[in-house]
User: Fold this.
Amino acid sequence: MSTTNQPGGQRTSGGRMKAKSSRRARSVRTEFQLLRAACWLFSERGFHGTGIRDIAETAGVAVSGMYYYASSKDEMLEAVTRRVMDVLVSSSEETLRDIDDPAERLAALMAVHAAFHARNPRAAKVADHEFQALTGEAREDILRLRDAYEAVWADTLRAGVRDGVFQDRGTVARLALLQMATGIAHWYRPDGELGIPQLCERFADMALSLMGAQREGRLLRVQDLALPDPALLLERVELAIEPREEPSAD
Assistant:
């Protein structure tokens, strides 16, 4: 059997390479199973009501095997929260990349935030509430990510006030806007009155209204602006670890 040179001078047969690739794929699948199980349990029972054995059993993984991925449930909570923040930051950055107008930026930001919380309610609730259980460096890292995300909102509001597009509502406006959409994770149902695209439009409209958005003396509405494509927005906020149904060890 032929061999292939590997980094570091190691020579590995084609068969062994396939085996390693298969093991890596199983490892990734197991990691997702554990994160989805942790996300479900933390959102159902809270961090303190969930044990590491609960996570392993729900994911169908031996407790001893789970320690290959995380040494504690604290690490699982950090991993879930970090993935939430990574997707929020990346989806916002992608969506805002070619938008300069403050009103359009605010509408797009609100659309991203609303879509994320509607599409990933359990992970969002864990990141918004249970992350408080984190301590030490892990907590500081997550807070830095949250601060960076909120800074994008603060910069957008300041730019709108500076350009005369928004009323100056102070720092409370940013907090009100974020909290308004965060609640979506608690009450939104896909089979309800609004689909996610319609929900995003409604919340973008409310954000513009809260900030008194206007141009040339006329109040701005969503229909006056160019919003991101809803299908693209949903693709960007998709979170792989969000449990779409109760995890099963089967």
